[in-house]
Write a structure and sequence with these properties.
binds nicotinamide-adenine-dinucleotide; 7-stranded parallel sheet; Rossmann fold; alpha/beta; two-stranded parallel ribbon
């Protein structure tokens, strides 16, 4: 008997990085899982359904298809997200709208479409992938940080709105995680080795966190075992938010 036996989950951004690690972990612990992503190619036992979280019709069709495949929905992992670099001078209004559309409204669309199914579930949980950028000021991340600050506030508001319907809502706040996203970021840096070393040094643990470590935290919050936990943000950041170590 495993904690996710009988649990039906959808994971956005489930074709890569943190989303794929989460979908795989939930499946290994007994859940049946549908990944909603621009890329619908995932390996068994996962099922992939193409969805663009910026398109309400696409989201509604994909969530309804996922619910039909799974026989309902108990867990929603809102994880699809994109990055943005620079100060407030570096991104124009269209880019601000585009990144908010994916990172914030995307979660709204997916959860809104899933609510009728979550209300039917006896173990309903929503977990949003937020970021250290919501709680720490990071240079050159103005737009991205603003979206993740919104995700943190949205998580709390949703937790309040849906508590009495039996739906828990929490988020995870990863530090820099070793995923294809960071691979792309490093590939675009002037000195990828120095950039990676700087990112590692920024976390007190001296290394990037892994996608599997973030997945473990998401699984904790999604599990029926954490039924007493709602409206929280769980850091998975190698101590970056809370610790101040002296130099060795
Ligand atoms: N990697 C990090 O260091 C880090 C740190 C903190 C938070 N996060 C957050 O974790 C989440 C996942 O990041 P990752 O590093 O695994 O990235 P990733 O690029 O490896 O995966 C993101 C996935 O989201 C999908 N996606 C993007 N736009 C989409 C859309 N419009 N509709 C549907 N799917 C879409 C992509 O196709 C991709 O499969 C993001 O929300 C990100 O902000 C990442």
């Amino acid at each position: 008997m495993s904690d996710f036996d009988g649990i039906r989950a959808i994971v956005t951004g489930g074709a890569s990085g943190i989303g794929l690690a989460t979908a795989s972990l939930l499946a290994s612990r007994g859940a049946t899982v549908v990944c909603l992503d621009l890329n619908s190619e995932v390996a068994a036992p996962l099922t992939g359904i193409r969805a663009d979280v910026t398109d309400d019709a696409s989201v509604r069709a994909a969530v309804s298809a996922a619910a039909a495949t799974l026989g309902g929905i108990d867990v929603v992992v809102n994880n699809a997200g994109i990055g943005a670099q620079g100060t407030i001078e570096d991104n124009d209004d269209a880019e601000w709208a585009r990144v908010f559309d994916v990172n914030v409204q995307g979660m709204v669309r997916v959860t809104r479409a899933a609510l009728p199914y979550l209300r039917e579930s006896s173990h309903a949980a929503v977990v949003n992938t937020c970021s250290i950028a919501a709680t720490a000021g990071l240079p050159q991340r103005a737009l991205y940080s603003a979206t993740k600050g919104a995700v943190l506030s949205l998580t709390l508001a949703m937790a309040a709105d849906h508590l009495r319907e039996g739906i828990r809502v929490n988020c995870v706040n990863p530090g820099t995680a070793d995923t294809p996203w960071i691979g792309r970021l490093l590939a675009g840096a002037a000195d990828p080795v120095a950039e990676r070393a700087a990112l590692e040094a920024r976390q007190p643990s001296g290394r990037l966190v892994t996608a599997d470590e973030v997945a473990g935290a998401i699984a904790y919050l999604a599990s029926p075992f954490s039924a007493g936990t709602t409206g929280t943000a769980l850091a998975v950041d190698g101590g970056m938010q809370g610790l101040r170590l002296r130099k060795e």
